[in-house]
Amino acid sequence: MRRKLVPVKLDSYKPLREIVFESMRDAIISGVLKPGERLMEIQLAEEMGVSRTPVREAIRKLELESFAVMIPRKGAYVAGVSYKDFAEVFEMRTALEGLAAGLAAERITADEIEQMERVLLLPDAEEMDLEKIVERDTDFHDLIYKASRNNRLQQMLANLREQIQRFRATSLAVPGRYIDAVKEHRVIVEALAEHNSELAKELMETHIVTAENVMFQTFNPDVPDDGDIPTITED
What we know:
Elements: H1 16-30, H2 41-48, H3 52-64, E1 68-71, E2 75-78, E3 81-82, H4 83-107, H5 110-119, H6 130-147, H7 151-159, H8 161-172, H9 177-193, H10 197-218, E4 228-229
Antiparallel strand pairs: 1-2, 3-4
Helix pairs in contact: 1-3, 2-3, 4-6, 4-7, 4-9, 4-10, 5-6, 5-9, 6-8, 8-10, 9-10
């Protein structure tokens, strides 16, 4: 049985439908709402403490952004992830984050190195829930994007952010992966501190490919390359 969604917090600057949409999207990205799970308006509205109307509007927007699919006579479901989408995102991520690390090695400051080292400090065991793990991993990579001092590159990575987050949560949920990821991060920081651009780029590319391989291991290898996981079909 999955965790319940937390009640939404009202924000005077945002309409309720947008707050509900962001809450549901984050739940999909973090894996609370899993691929293939039916999106039940009444249940979700009760969990978030809102009426059905903003939930219905949020589901429509999730469908437009490919986070949900509508099946005639069945309802709305969390969209599956295709191997093609998966491979394309990691292909782009490897190239862009490798470039970001190479540029960061040339331009990073001592203060930014210290920030990265603080992010890499492992939390206490009781704090090692998936949400905090994903947050720490995201913070580390964001620091590298910023240190690249390339605004257009940062924008391109920002455009991939939601898709990256969905895969990041799945990868880091694998037992032991976060510990390994931190070790990989540490050697990247060493290369950055030495301003070794070529090595930083190579280590980052290897890090992303390793995360991709971990993701592949969580999928059924018998599923065809263009198939969704899980597949939802109409009777």
